[in-house]
Specification:
heterodimer, A: 286 residues, alpha+beta, Immunoglobulin-like, 3 domains, 5-stranded mixed beta sheet, 3-stranded mixed beta sheet, 7 helices, B: 386 residues, mainly alpha, Cytochrome Bc1 Complex, Chain D, domain 2, 18 helices, 51% helix, elongated, Cyt_c-like_dom (chain B), Cytochrome_c_Oxidase_Subunit (chain B), heme (chain B)
Chain lengths: 286, 386
């Protein structure tokens, strides 16, 4: 391939040089009609057609030929990612948000949708962008060859907080992925420590469950991210802040300061003690 | 030409300077007791009437025949307007009559104005008179309720006026000493409670018409914070702000505890009819929300639920539909104040449309109030005898 390209390149350069240095009578043959048709039309059409055929042959493996071992539905919403792991029958095995864990080296099919405006799913280190279009389902299969953490980003301007609509794709060793997935499907830990229980009660009493689900508690809301295992995720606010008790407390009390315009209101009503208890509870949900 | 302009310029300067010197000298008498010359009075009235007529152009008058609106407007009139403007069977205060201009005795004068003009005057007040603007400029709904009452004013007599403005106290059941007993210790609290009772009733159920929200059985925390928000101007209301601002903190706590302590207040009959389909929609919004429209469930914060609830969130079961709906509309109009709590609710209301608001309000109105231990398969609520 490279050799062919180099030869054509040298041929073109050589002919250019000839037209400059030869006297007029000896380069007249280059302007003949047959030479122009052969070199300007027949030759490029033949070469490019061959290359196109070769290209289809080489990329055939990328176009759905590989059977995915895992199917994950990712729904873009302003401004976060709803992530649903599907079972064989297409039902939802468990839901999470803003973080996608996959087994390294295995092809994963991403089913991409949008709940509101056009978003674009992009993990630069692993694959190209693919738009998430309202009312349309796009699918994309690729694999992460090596275990690691890959940052993803919405790549289609989708409103004020488009820049803070990121996520992490975490490729794990297949064995530890299975253990992780089994844990995710479980309901949230039922905490025994007094402060965590207090935090859980405040979480419920302040109405967080109207929008968020924590499986195993009365919180069954479906508007915002599923928080059943939020403490085990790398980030909160869709890649905005790392997950820890401090960022959780800051996020809850001032969402509109951290990420203005986001659907969740700032819960500025919470006393600092209560806020800490709720944040500690959420952090404990690994 | 240039010379003539110069002369005119000097003349104007001279007149202006003269006027200034006259004002500076203090020779003009601003005494209300001195009155106006007839021509001055004519000119001021002429300007005022034309201004009101022009400024109120384009106002759309809502239906004004709703009893709840009239009661609400009348009760505010009793506390806020009557002392200057009089009422059927009530003369203007002697003090008010010494104002210049003296406020008109409205039962005789109010029909000289159209409803849209009255709205404009009540909302904006009148310069160079004692007529104040409405304390909460966001609350057109409150101003219209005053207008609804004013539209009735010429045709009602003293008895009907008492009925409209004083609720249970008008019908002979004066507040008993026993009811006031919890307040006998605090200075002034008795007066404060009487003000509450006029509209919200001694049992906290309002007047059964939806004119006033039901307070019985709300948490003391919520009622206290509502009074605080009114008093501090954080929750706009031309009706409640002046009343709450007069209360001391201790009175607020006492009053909040009083209404929070009423657990056996009868449920009012639903004020508005609703069909089954609408109620089902209301129930869906209240208990589950509609997630693909971005509407969260109400019940997580406002009940009914068996899980713990923040006592600062009001409970809605049995509250009047018209009150709930109006509050939700205020949120949608960004007129429901600006507190930590109201901003949380603003996010919850964002995606409700008018149909949703009506459905969920009607649903909550029909829920039984305050059922701490719901009896399984309990009978439908029987008649709630007086």
């Amino acid at each position: 391939m490279f050799t062919g390209g180099a030869l054509i390149f040298l041929l073109v350069i050589g002919l250019t040089v000839l037209t400059i240095i030869l006297p007029q009578e000896r380069r007249r043959w280059l302007a003949q009609q047959n030479v122009v048709i052969a070199g300007g039309i027949v030759f490029p059409v033949a070469v490019l057609s061959l290359l196109l055929g070769y290209g289809f042959f080489v990329t055939r493996g990328h176009v759905g030929a590989e059977e995915p071992t895992l199917r994950i539905e990712v729904i873009g919403e302003q401004w976060w990612w709803r992530v649903r792991y599907l079972d064989e029958s297409g039902g939802v095995r468990f839901a999470t948000a803003n973080e996608i864990r996959v087994p390294a080296g295995e092809p994963v099919e991403f089913i991409l949708k949008s709940a509101d405006v056009i978003h674009s799913f992009w993990v630069p280190s692993l694959a190209g962008k693919l738009d998430m279009v309202p009312g349309k389902v796009n699918t994309y299969t690729f694999s992460a060859d090596k275990p690691g953490v890959y940052r993803g980003q919405c790549a289609e301007y989708c409103g004020a907080q488009h820049a803070l609509m990121a996520f992490y794709l975490v490729a794990m060793e297949p064995g530890s992925f299975d253990a992780w997935a089994a844990g995710q499907a479980d309901p949230a830990w039922d905490r025994v420590a007094a402060e965590l229980k207090y935090g859980r009660d405040l979480f419920i009493a302040n109405g967080c469950g109207a929008c968020h689900t924590v499986r195993g508690t009365p919180a069954t809301g479906d508007l915002g991210p599923d928080l059943t295992h939020v403490g085990g995720r790398l980030s909160i606010g869709a890649g905005t802040l790392p997950t820890n008790i401090g960022t959780l407390a800051g996020w809850i009390s001032s969402t509109q300061h951290v990420k203005p315009g986001v659907s969740m209101p700032s819960f500025g009503n919470l006393e600092s003690r209560d806020l800490r208890a709720i944040a500690a509870y959420l952090e404990s949900l690994e | 030409m240039a010379r003539r302009l110069k002369t005119i310029g000097f003349f104007l300067l001279f007149v202006g300077l003269g006027g200034f010197l006259f004002a500076w000298s203090g020779l003009y008498n601003v005494a209300a007791s001195a009155g106006h010359w007839a021509i001055t009075r004519w000119f001021l009235t002429f300007g005022m009437e034309n201004s009101v007529e022009t400024q109120s152009v384009g106002l759309k008058v809502p239906p004004l025949d709703d009893l709840a609106m009239i009661q609400r407007g009348a009760s505010h009139y009793f506390g806020g307007c009557m002392s200057c403007h009089g009422a059927p069977g009530e003369a203007r205060s002697v003090v008010a009559k010494q104002m210049l201009p003296a406020p008109p005795y409205l039962p005789d004068k109010v029909d000289e104005w159209r409803a849209d003009e009255l709205f404009w005057i009540v909302k904006h007040g009148l310069k160079y008179t004692g007529m104040p603007a409405w304390a909460a400029q966001e609350r057109d709904d409150e101003v219209w309720s005053v207008v609804a009452f004013l539209a009735r004013l010429p045709e009602i007599g003293p008895d009907e006026y008492r009925e409209l403005t004083q609720g249970e106290q008008a019908s002979g059941t004066e507040t008993t000493a026993e009811q006031l007993q919890p307040f006998s210790l605090g200075d002034g609290s008795t007066d404060a409670l009487v003000k509450c009772i006029r509209c919200h009733g001694s049992n906290g159920t309002g007047r059964g018409t939806g004119a006033f929200p039901r307070l019985a059985g709300q948490s003391a925390e919520y009622l206290y914070s509502a009074l605080q928000d009114y008093a501090l101007g954080l929750r706009p209301s031309g009706i409640m702000q002046p009343i709450a601002a007069d209360l001391t903190e201790e009175e607020m706590r006492t009053l909040a505890a009083y209404y929070a302590g009423i657990e056996d207040a009868p449920s009012a009959d639903p004020q508005l009819p609703a069909d089954r389909e609408v109620l089902r929609r209301g129930e869906a919004i209240a208990t589950e929300g509609i997630s693909d429209q971005g509407i969260p469930a109400c019940a997580n914060c406002h009940g009914p639920t068996t899980a713990p609830r923040n006592p600062r969130y009001p409970s809605l079961s049995g509250q009047y539909a018209s009150y709930i709906a109006q509050q939700l509309r205020l949120w949608k109009q960004d007129a429901r104040g600006n507190t930590e709590y109201s901003r949380i609710m603003a996010a919850a209301v964002r995606n409700l449309d008018e149909e949703d608001i009506e459905a969920v309000s009607l649903y909550y109105e029909r829920l039984q109030t305050m059922a701490p231990d719901p009896e399984p398969n309990g009978p439908a609520s029987g008649p709630t005898g007086e």
